[in-house]
Design brief:
heterodimer; A: mainly alpha; abc type-2 transporter like fold; 2 domains; four-stranded mixed sheet; 15 helices; elongated; B: alpha/beta; Rossmann fold; six-stranded mixed sheet; four-stranded antiparallel sheet; 10 helices; 39% helix
Chain lengths: 397, 257
């Protein structure tokens, strides 16, 4: 054990003095999320404010109808009304964003409304997902006019508006805030773990195996009275530690981002803080160790096989894409942690994270996730040992 | 003492080697070392002489327990190099010309690391370290990062690393390759010092000057086969009027014919 500790200690010192390892293991995970949260919050808030404060330019093609609607818009400070464009011109201007929307009232609109039928209005606008606020404001203009006409119609008929309502539905969604947000936040966090576990352990794995081989230091190490098993254990402990620390630091970075970035709206902040509670964090952290054992075992085996640093990078980098696929599958609609999915490595981490955040993780499934990761981790370690004991791999040239 | 009997090493040829036609092996294998036997005695320097690709490094790697022989036996200080590999490594120092060091450690840290791997206690380590640092004049750069050291300084660190546990047997694989004259002198001095200390020394080289300068006993190896094994003075004595180089080339050419 003393010798393993000696190797571990030396490898840690060596790794921590490597700028690349430090950047990938500590700096990127620590500062990436506060930076991302800060930038994205600023952008979202600014876009939201812009859409809210924007003066809508509405083109009306009334064909002599809906005079009262025109009057209701003309006096408003948040709306500019234009009436001298043809429909074709309006469409062109909407496409180039110089017009917010065009309301085209059919020539028989007033008559139809008077006859107690629905007056036809065509609404032209350009909508993308990030323009929800503007779209809602445009629709509110028409809906407000519709409400006014309905009230007038009921008054004319001498009918109380309330009788139209036959059902009084009260919705009670028993899903907790955590459960509602588990799909979105929970979908994001596994990427965090998997990518940083992978990245954090990648450089040490490459440096401690292929790097040593390339530098010619592995040969010297192997002539010391230490077994290959002890050397591998010492190196593997470093790979596990760096991967786990990197992922843990990314969680810390996320926490710092959430608590320190002032641009996050208070209502969202309170929800996020509610989700990131101590129990959830501890459960998530506990998933990191078997996950890193699994990923680190594969990385170290590939690195041990490679004859140079560059070859190890070429072998390990595509692995990240392979690892991300099951993580992504865990985000597909309807995918849940069950007895079967808990056995699929990486995907099970993705699904377990969602379940932990939702607060509905099943103990048996959680144990299955551990079992599966440990099983595949041991497979990774066995592969690693096999590669290391094969002299053709160690002295490959 | 090192005793080698009927040592044979067969490698599988990789696909890359097959493509490059780097070897003339049959059935996908190549015999890098073929049934060689020799003995290295304490207090004497044994030289393994041969051209590039002769099988010198493979032989030394088997002695250092880095490679397992396909057949035959290696005994180091009475220990079987295959069955008692860890025990053999405790008695062995290994230095190659291609060995580099951990650039991010200091000489002090590196030497301590290898001392710990050799289970040396603190007192013993400090005494031996001070002795080596004094002999090699390493004190001034003992706490600098190795990456910042000159080639000569690095070679001194390599020597200290090899000798820290005071090994009974020292293996040098082409130790002066790529070194300047001054740095090579350190190695030559070290090899001679090892002989004076009664250690068993085996070193490989393809430089004739080093053979006549250092060797007590020697073996010539070519294409994995032993062509000469005996005292160095006998080899020099049998050369007739020619130089050591000429006799060496004559032996190699005789084998190829």
């Amino acid at each position: 054990m003393n010798v393993i500790w000696t190797i571990f200690k030396k490898e840690i010192i060596d790794s921590l003095r490597d700028r690349r390892t430090l950047i990938v293991m500590i700096l990127v995970p620590l500062f990436l999320f506060p930076a991302l949260i800060s930038i994205s919050s600023r952008v979202i808030m600014s876009q939201h404010r812009k859409a809210k404060d924007k003066v809508l330019t509405i083109a009306l093609i009334r064909n002599g109808n809906a005079e009262d609607f025109r009057e209701s818009l003309v006096g408003r400070s948040d709306v500019t009304v234009v009436e001298d464009f043809s429909l074709q011109e309006c469409k062109e201007r909407i496409k180039t964003d110089s017009l917010s929307a065009c309301f085209e009232f059919k020539s028989d609109f007033d008559e139809t409304v008077k006859s107690m039928a629905g007056g036809k209005v065509n609404l032209y606008f350009k909508h993308t997902d990030n323009q929800d606020v503007e779209k809602d404001r445009i629709l509110d203009l028409l809906n407000g006019y519709g409400d006014k006409l309905r009230t007038e119609r009921f008054a004319e008929l001498g009918v109380d508006e309330k009788i139209i309502k036959t059902l009084n539905i009260h919705q009670f969604n028993l899903a907790t805030v955590k459960e509602k947000l588990a799909d979105t936040i929970g979908g994001f966090l596994p990427y965090l773990f998997i990518i940083f576990c992978f990245m954090g352990s990648m450089y040490p794995a490459i440096d401690l195996a292929a790097g040593e081989k390339e530098r010619g230091t592995l040969e010297t190490l192997l002539t010391s009275p230490v077994s290959k098993g002890q050397i591998l254990t010492g190196k593997f402990m470093v790979v596990i530690l760096t991967g786990t620390v990197s992922a843990a630091i990314s969680i810390l970075g996320l926490y710092i981002g959430i608590t320190q970035v002032k641009e996050i709206p208070p209502e969202i902040l309170s929800i996020l803080l509610n989700i990131i509670e101590l129990k959830s964090i501890l459960l998530l952290l506990s998933l990191l160790v078997p996950l890193t054992v699994f990923l680190g075992g594969i990385e170290l085996a590939l690195s041990m096989y490679a004859k140079s640093f560059k070859e190890a990078q070429n072998l390990i980098t595509p692995l990240m894409i392979i690892v991300i696929i099951p993580a992504f599958m865990g985000l597909l609609p309807g995918m849940k942690l069950d007895a079967t999915t808990a056995l699929v490595p990486v995907m099970n981490v993705s699904l377990a994270t969602k379940a932990i955040i939702a607060g509905n993780i099943h103990t048996l499934h959680f144990m299955e996730v551990y079992g599966s990761l440990i099983f595949f981790g041991i497979l990774g370690v066995i592969t690693c040992i096999a590669v290391f004991h094969h002299e053709g791999s160690v002295f490959r040239s | 003492m090192i005793e080698i009997k009927n040592l044979h090493k067969r490698f599988k040829i990789s696909r890359e080697q097959k493509k490059q036609k780097r070897s003339g092996g049959r059935n996908g294998t190549i015999d890098a070392v073929q049934n060689i036997s020799f003995k290295c005695n304490p207090g004497r320097i044994f030289t393994l002489l041969g051209p590039n690709g002769a099988g010198k490094t493979t032989t030394l790697r088997m002695i250092a327990t880095l490679l397992k022989p396909t057949s035959g036996s290696i005994t180091v200080c009475g220990l079987d190099a295959v069955k008692e590999a860890v025990e053999v490594r405790k008695k062995l120092g290994f230095l190659t010309g291609s060995t580099r060091l951990y650039d991010r450690l200091t000489p002090n840290e590196l030497i301590r690391y290898y001392a710990d791997l050799h289970y040396m206690d603190k007192k013993e380590f400090m005494q031996r370290r001070d002795e080596l640092f004094e002999i090699l004049d390493m004190r001034s750069f003992a706490d600098w990062r190795i990456g910042k050291l000159s080639t000569g300084m690095k070679q001194k660190v390599s020597i200290a690393r090899t000798m820290i546990h005071n090994p009974e047997v020292v293996v040098f694989d082409e130790p002066t390759v790529g070194l300047d004259v001054m740095t090579s002198q350190n190695i030559i001095h070290l090899i001679r010092q090892c002989r004076e200390d009664g250690k068993t020394v085996i070193f490989s080289t393809h430089i004739m000057g080093e053979v006549s300068l250092l060797s007590d006993d020697m073996a010539i190896i070519h294409q994995g086969q032993l062509l000469y094994n005996g005292a160095c003075k006998d080899f020099i004595g049998q050369k007739g009027g020619g130089s050591v180089e000429e006799e060496f080339i004559r032996i190699l050419q005789g084998k190829e014919q």
